[in-house]
Amino acid sequence: MSTQKNMNLTLQVWRQKSKRDAGGFKTYQAKNISPDQSFLEMLDVVNEDLIAKGEEPIAFDHDCREGICGMCSLFINGAPHGGFPGTTTCQLHMRHFKDGDEITIEPWRAKPFPVLKDLIVDRTSFDRLVQAGGYISVNTGGAPDANAVPIPKKDADLAMDAASCIGCGACVAACPNASAMLFVSAKISQLRHLPQGEAERKKRALNMLNRADQEGFGSCRNHFECEAACPKDIPRRVMAEAYRDYIEASALREE
Amino acid sequence: MSGAIDITASDLKLESKAPTGPLAEKWSKHKFDLKLVNPANKRRYRVIVVGSGLAGASAASSLGELGYHVDCFCFQDSPRRAHSIAAQGGINAAKNYQNDGDSIFRLFYDTIKGGDFRAREANVHRLAECSVDIIDHCTALGVPFAREYGGQLANRSFGGAQVSRTFYARGQTGQQLLLGAYSSLSRMIELGRVKMHSRAEMLDLVLVDGHAKGIVTRDLVSGEIKAWAADAVVLATGGYGNVFYLSTNAQGCNVTATYRAYKRGAAFANPCFTQIHPTCIPVHGDQQSKLTLMSESLRNDGRIWVPKAKSDTRGAAQIPEAERDYYLERKYPSFGNLVPRDIASRAAKQVCDEGRGVGPGGLGVYLDFAKAISEKGKRDIEGKYGNLFDMYAKITAEDPYATPMRIYPAVHYTMGGLWVDYNLMSNVPGLFVLGEANFSDHGANRLGASALMQGLSDGYFVIPYTVGGYLAGEKPGKAGVDHAAFGEVVSTVKSRSHKLLSIQGNKSPRQFHRALGQIMWERCGMARNAAGLEKAVTDIRALRAEFWENVKVLGDGSAVNTSLEMAGRVADFLEFGEIMCVDAWHRQESCGGHFREEFQTEEGEARRDDDGFAYVAAWMHRGDGKVPSLAKEPLSFENVKLSQRSYK
Ligand SMILES: Cc1cc2nc3c(=O)[nH]c(=O)nc-3n(C[C@H](O)[C@H](O)[C@H](O)COP(=O)(O)OP(=O)(O)OC[C@H]3O[C@@H](n4cnc5c(N)ncnc54)[C@H](O)[C@@H]3O)c2cc1C
Ligand code: SF4
Ligand code: FES
């Protein structure tokens, strides 16, 4: 338990009725907030206040509230998830703020993530990137024994590092070009480190990266803002790996 | 039945359809006996799958692979975010890779016994059989399970099991299994076999001539209320632990889909069987929205204790060894800190009720790693539990390496669910129910790492066969959305949504939810008694009446409206909570997670009553405001001997 006292905060929150509405900031007071509350619990309190006053509550996405579903988002004081290392918005506790602070809260801003309402954006473009090839094409039934092909621990660990991406979109929101390179590469990297993924390795990179272009994600210019913003510490090396597969695939196609 | 709650017997006959013959041959025999749909005909059938968690995503993708037209629905913005993603610990499978004596029969036996003999033998055995295929299939899909240096899959023992049969992917097993199922689902979407409908919430079920033939949804972005027709409906909508308001479940988890199906005639089985997990971070304040689970694996090295003296206000470090009560080790010398969840939770409640709890409000016990750290070294403990310790520190601002963790039980899982037969079909023909949403495999208490197994077994390996068995006897496209039945349900759904928006009272949906949660936790939580449950029923009725007069939902129905979503879910919880209490009241025995204070041994252990209660209690809707009627499926045990669980 934190020993800090409860605090009062001023929030500048982006409100937008719908996709077509222009939207704008509104100022709210968050009163008597406990340092042990999470950021989203702080917004719950503000929302209860708003309902009491007859104003529609602020809409935001969330579900697990423990940093794993990737549903929460929020640009807090100019940084995705608030910019604390390895932390999603739902895991951010109010003890990181102090009495009297002013906090700005905005939705992810990127062309492929249109705002649906207030702080909620549409991230279905991420699903479509995975649909382009973020899988191993195997039907249910008839798989060989799981221990038939040994996988060195090192490779399994590299795959797992990449696989821990939660699909939140902070990398895109942080990138000046709204590139989805870190997200796409995380999947490509996971599957390329496993023998099962080898057969479709090149095709996968080609299709997923091409799909990213079609969906309106920008290209990667090596700013690495994504890596800094990623709450799951997906390392930049995955992008080099994906790029390698992509080049190989493109070269083959041109032959 | 006598007493304050008047329960009538239902005339519904529940046929389990469990095949005859030796236990180990039932499933193979049944698969052969099931009718098949001609491959060329499959694409003429439509199947609706509601839910994209482990059960739903694996079902939707496998049915798509077979050639059916599948429509899959979830309320999150992406199927990948279903609550299954949050599972940490692992998934069981009877692979016996460790050569430590595991087998399909042992997993079957452990599950039946762990469930305190309140599950159906045939289903549980099939689950144990399929467990083996799950690991193979998930590995083929690229799930990065933990490996040993030699490249073989790693296992750990989990939740009191005496063999090492749990497979895991760091602390993110549910995430990795779900992403595997999601990847298959994505492939089927790309191939046009599955159409995915995200941010769509099922609000009712449509029956045509007594068969489930469709659903009605609300588009959570546009607000549109829409009907969908199909030849069969599969519900894989998860558990209802959030009826308690605070639980380890994701915020969106709710009972609406299964409860609406219940109101349309599906039987709800064993609703009072809830699992309270012993190792969660205690409540810190009244604005809290959820409780966080600390993985059960911590009990492998952590020792649980409270001070011997009541109201001891000293810090943990100031309490000498001799003044500490390691109560699990004391009461259960052979299992110690590794007793099953229900027992560990109840023991924690007991010591806190005695006034020996620690932390704010005395609602906590210590989980202490000092001994493990001094014996094995900090490095070792960090290697095993580093991420959990970090998570604990992040939430509580305390350092668990230096001072013991504080934990307290929290609602975690619901064993009850819609009644299903061996085919996972409810008593409503054409309505299938998978995963946590059904009641089938865990009896009165679920073992750790068995929910993931069940969800995937249901979705990958059971439903592809059994849905075919049903569809083979049905003409495709029997009823379209233009059928009158659909129009009727659409208007019911619309008027309910309209009603919620028009009340404009004084209390938010959350206030009602919190109030309901308090009643449920107090009276239908870790310990229950007849008088308390009767009081709960009265209180819930009053709260429900107030809700429909005084709830305040702002905004309108034709756009994103998170309050409206919440209000609808809370409204269903307010009806369903009462049924849980009725079920808990009627079951005059203690078994698994259901502890009735009137039925305990002198030592305070659960007293089961096999003569009176070895049955599944399946409740049937009789109309709004009426106590449901009760149908019973007797349970017979042919392959295991009924015994009193003992972990002493
Ligand atoms: C913190 C935590 C840790 C856990 N750890 C483990 C573990 O280590 N091992 C283990 O075996 N089990 C574990 N469990 C239990 C396990 O995770 C769940 O029981 C299991 O994942 C449930 O899967 P499911 O597919 O049945 O449902 P869910 O994953 O809950 O999916 C439900 C789906 O239904 C959809 N849905 C629900 N209602 C509607 C509606 N009305 N309309 C449209 N869609 C709807 C949702 O959008 C979602 O897609 C854990 C549970 C928790 C809470
Ligand atoms: S790479 Fe990181 S920031 Fe990007 S979606 Fe994945 S978890 Fe989020
Ligand atoms: S709400 Fe799930 S990651 Fe934040």
Describe the model.
The complex is a heterodimer of chains A (255) and B (648). Chain A folds into 2 domains: 111 residues, Beta-grasp domain (Ubiquitin-like (UB roll), Roll), CATH 3.10.20.30; 115 residues, Alpha-helical ferredoxin (Fumarate Reductase Iron-sulfur Protein, Chain B, domain 2, Orthogonal Bundle). In chain A, 53% of the residues are buried. Chain A is 35% helix and 13% strand. Chain A contains 8 helices and 7 strands. Chain A is elongated and about 60 Å long. The termini of chain A are far apart. The mean pLDDT of chain A is 96. The longest helix of chain A is centred in the last third of the chain and has 18 residues. The longest helix of chain B has 25 residues. The model of chain B has no long low-confidence stretch (mean pLDDT 96). Chain B has a 5-stranded parallel beta sheet. Chain B has a 5-stranded antiparallel beta sheet with strand order 11-15-14-12-13. A 4-stranded antiparallel beta sheet of chain B has the order 16-10-18-19. Chain B has 17 helices and 19 strands. By secondary structure, chain B is of the alpha+beta class. Chain B has 3 domains: 308 residues, 3-Layer(bba) Sandwich (FAD/NAD(P)-binding domain); 133 residues, Succinate dehydrogenase/fumarate reductase flavoprotein, catalytic domain (Flavocytochrome C3, Chain A, domain 1), CATH 3.90.700; 112 residues, Methane Monooxygenase Hydroxylase, Chain G, domain 1. Chains A and B meet through helix 1, helix 2 and helix 3 of A and helix 3, helix 5, helix 6, helix 11 and helix 12 of B. The complex binds flavin-adenine dinucleotide, iron/sulfur cluster (SF4) and FE2/S2 (inorganic) cluster. The site of iron/sulfur cluster has 15 residues of chain A, from helix 4 and helix 5.
Task: Give the topology.
The complex is a heterodimer of chains A (255) and B (648).
Chain A lengths: L6 E9 L8 E10 L5 H15 L21 E2 L2 E2 L21 E5 L8 E3 L2 E2 L2 H8 L21 H11 L6 H5 L6 H12 L8 H14 L10 H5 L7 H18 L1
Parallel strand pairs in A: 1-5
Antiparallel strand pairs in A: 1-2, 3-4, 3-5, 6-7
Chain B lengths: L25 H8 L5 H4 L3 E5 L3 H13 L2 E5 L17 E2 L11 H11 L6 H20 L25 E2 L5 H18 L3 E4 L2 E9 L2 E9 L5 E5 L2 E4 L20 H8 L4 E2 L4 E7 L22 E5 L16 E2 L1 H5 L9 H13 L11 E4 L1 H7 L1 H19 L8 E10 L2 E2 L12 E3 L17 H21 L12 H20 L5 H16 L5 H21 L11 H25 L23 H4 L1 E6 L8 E6 L14
Parallel strand pairs in B: 1-2, 1-9, 2-5, 9-17
Antiparallel strand pairs in B: 3-4, 6-7, 7-8, 10-16, 10-18, 11-15, 12-13, 12-14, 14-15, 18-19
Helix pairs in contact in B: 3-6, 3-12, 4-5, 5-12, 10-11, 14-15, 14-16, 15-16
